[in-house]
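Cont'd.
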Amino acid sequence: MNLENLLRCVRDGVASADELAACRSLVATDPRIPDELRVALFDDDTAGDAAGLLAILGADDLGLAAALQTELDGTERGLELAELELDGIPVAEAVRALGGEIDLAAALELPVVPLGAALAAEAGIVELWAGVAGQIGIGVVPVADAIRAHAGAVDLWPAVARAVAPRPVAANNNRWWLSGLVAAAAAALLVVGWPGDAPEAPLVFAGAGETRIEELVVSDKVTVMQLEGDEGALILWIEDNAPTEVL
Amino acid sequence: MTPWMKRLVLGLGILAASAAWVEPVLAQQPQAQEAPAGKSNITIRVVHATQSGRVDPALKAVEAQLKFTRFTGFAQLSSNTAQVATGAETAVPVPGGRRLRVELLSRTPTQARARVRLFEAGEPLADSTQVVPRGKTILIGGPKFDGGVLLLLVTVN
């Protein structure tokens, strides 16, 4: 009886002590069984061990053999996901093909704009003065008017007088007469007037009796008449001889 | 006597002396500043007479004497005074392309002899020689200008 049959008997609990011993002997030498599995076989759960060995040997008639073989292959080679093939395409390539370059801004639905511009667009213009004025309860007040309104008239003289202390006058000042002369000159100018400031003579018309016309030559273009004003003033009146235009 | 009192006394003294000197001078020439020796002041005023009803303040004193023109408004367009020696002349532009020339022919303490000529476009319109009392004004009127007439007032001092 070969190993597979012996293992089936053990699994099914129908093996005799000799068949169990023969099974142990074959397992210990069968090259298809990994060495690490040869230790401590058939000590406690002989049926389970037998079933497992059958699966390893591919003689399992329950379908466990293929599953176990796949598991063992994966354990031995390690699970290389990148080498797995899905529909004939390497996993790594498939992942990259599906992923591409990730545009985080697009993914987050944020427009790609400079940060400053984005902040300014959201913030708008900050009307600081309007806000402050509103808070303190005043409107738009012209600063100059406000200052003038609060300042009033400034009397500079007391400050100037304090700053410019009167200096003692020298007792032997021999130019004291100069001040008097200046004062007198100013008074004289006030009375007489500034030289060259010739006042216009008041208008007094010469009467006809005190004016004499010695000679008078007149152009053909005009007519000159000698008139006398309301108060006897002599007037030379020049009239244009050109005919008056009729519109 | 303090320096300030000295100034005050001296100033008053000089002022009194000045007043004593000025008064006769003003009495001698009450109308205008005296022209240098050998010269006379000749003043030429150009007045625009219209029907505006407005009278220039400078002409208020003679408004009544100007009413003969039948105009109601009088505006002084210009006033020029020149110191003219005997044998010399002065001239002023007159609106409308005209020009008035006054020549001082001779003078005495009380009167002056003057030649008064009005030109238009360079041609003489009127040429008169008059003897006028010094300090008084002769009037030449009539040239038309801007809806009114022009009055030329000539005074020889």
